Amino acid sequence: MILEKPISQASINNREPIFAQLQRLLSDKKSVLEIGSGTGQHAVYFAGELPHLHWHTSDLTENHPGINQWLDEYSGDNISRPFELDVTGSWPELKVDAVYTANTLHIMGFDSVKHFFAGLPNVLNENATLIIYGPFKYNGEFTTPSNAKFDIWLKNRNPESGVRDIEAIQELAKEQGLKLMEDNAMPANNQLLVFGN
């Protein structure tokens, strides 16, 4: 059976604004681990635009076939096949200059978010950068009514998921020696957070 290559419209919509930030943030980096590569579209697009960078993909095993379909069509040599990565389990044995994740922290349960941050020291080089894209709350408040509706939709699917409080994310990062360096407003009521040490 031939699988249909997965396509995320959200990935198409947000790749240009995200790239505008990554181009600056990753200019002096050599390697990045993407946690939750999803369809693989971001990996192929960003690696193609940033040839100086080696892009490591990762996700749960069930998403690997779709990621590999995108990688099969990529002509460069600066993307690795996906690692099996469940943040609550074992992490890949590699060290990178940056970790990038998009639209993941509100999908996973908060216990998994804690595991996400606890696992970062396993893969981050010294002076590495953590980049997180997605919606967040500030002082317990949603930034827009649409994000509040999105939060309800998420919790109907999984009560443990939901739009995260940025203060909680900062605290988890602080426990791993990371501090918020930038909070960039992005289209569609999202943020791009940049952490460093």
Automatic annotation (TrEMBL):
GO terms for molecular function: methyltransferase activity. The keyword Methyltransferase applies. Keywords: Methyltransferase, Transferase. Pfam families: DUF938. GO terms for biological process: methylation. SUPFAM superfamilies: S-adenosyl-L-methionine-dependent methyltransferases. This is Class I SAM-dependent methyltransferase. It comes from Sessilibacter corallicola. The lineage of its organism: Bacteria, Pseudomonadati, Pseudomonadota, Gammaproteobacteria, Cellvibrionales.
